[in-house]
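Hey, can you fold this?
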Amino acid sequence: MNVAIWGSGYYGTKLRMILEHCDPNGKSFRAMYFVDNDEKKWGEVYLGLKILSPDTLKRSNESIDGIVIAVSNEKINDIVNQAKKIGIKRILLLPTWQYKKTDVDLNEIMEIEYEKPRLNYLEFHASEHCNLNCKGCASFCGLITEPRFIDERVLFDDLKRLKELVWGIGIIRILGGEPLLNPSLHRIVSFTRRVFPDSDLRVVTNGLLLPSLSRELINAMRCSGAVFDVSVYPPTQKRINEIKCICELNEIEYALNRIEEFYKVLDPSGKNDPHISLLNCIAPGCTLLKNGELTKCVFLQYVDLLNASFNMNFRVDNDDRINIYSDGLDGNKLVEMLNRPSGFCKYCTQNPIPYKWEAVGYKVAKEDWVIG
């Protein structure tokens, strides 16, 4: 298959070398050109290939069978849209996490169903209880006193349904509670990767259970190229060297995110302008999946816990939850719905109140979340 490599930077360079040394008995790609949006590179020859502008590629389209995108994960959507506009019929991708491997299998190069959109972000909770319970946790973990895990069968069906609607998802984060409390987390990681091979897949953890990782989870994380996003709270900081050592010994990538403050944002008056609240949101675009529904933020799925515990009346409208199995729903309509402000945004203050992080266990009060 004759292809142009779109991107002549880090990923394009690596892809060129991969294709040069591919197994002749396996899937075969012949690189004909580089394509790049940087006009300073146009006309240069790099690694034996001429670098074309997108417009030049458009005129040379008949000499290739398609393109392979080789850019950072966050730029992929833009390149897909650009390639569609200039009439590229076959758009392929080697997912960025694959470049970390020492031995890349060209069978991992996927063809993009570009008539569908790509979601930028998705999260779901592998467990809803926690071993730390931060004051003001957005998932209201301090109100969940018994172990609660996600229903795997429902989750797997939901992920497969989403794949019918979108060709990929930029970032998928598996959250909690504390996700490492779920003994089935290795299956969840592996299944998510199979359904969405393009995603930057991450498990968000406070890190305290990393020293007791199971062999199954270690293997799943490594084979999936998944990353541990470690929320470095003060108790985590005390064990940070041990946590880093565990990840490095097991060859699992990790990122450290120091957290010293939380924010109080819920205003029960409901008098805030939803559009302005969305613009000032401290965590915008956090699309959450639970039981066949997508919501724009975690509050929409879990605020009922706050209502029940403290006799509050935060209302979630039916339109704030998107049933992914609805008749007539397609990916473009789904993205459009997710880009609208939620009616619930009226409960979010435009001036979040910061406070110092602390663990409170189950000694919670409504003032941990609610202003006024």
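Oh, and this one too while you're at it.
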Amino acid sequence: MLVIWRGYGFMVPVVFIFFVIVLKLLEENLFGPAFKPYFHYGMAAVAVCSAATVWFVGRHYNGAAPRELVDPKTGQTVLLRQKHSLFFIPMEYWAIALVALAVVFARDTHFGERAAQPGAQPDVHASGSAAG
């Protein structure tokens, strides 16, 4: 897979993975097996923490004042701005996608629970009605 970034844009997935590792360590060392049914809420918290971190770091780096350089031959002023993006999307806007991911995790109340229960039947909805 090809990952395209500019500046510190590569930090978006690194921040998310960091918070996932923190959640996993907390689950194993602090909460134990009682946390399993609530793991999706933990993942929602991971996504929110990642979103906040990415937003503030992205705003800090992309909002920095540009460097002014003067060409000695022409006397022309050039502004240099360093951009930080992942897949051509500015770093701070990835926070929106991470918040959307948090909503998905928070709403998914059966995050793998049904498949883990022995003898569980999948939900089947009829697409029509029987004429009698």
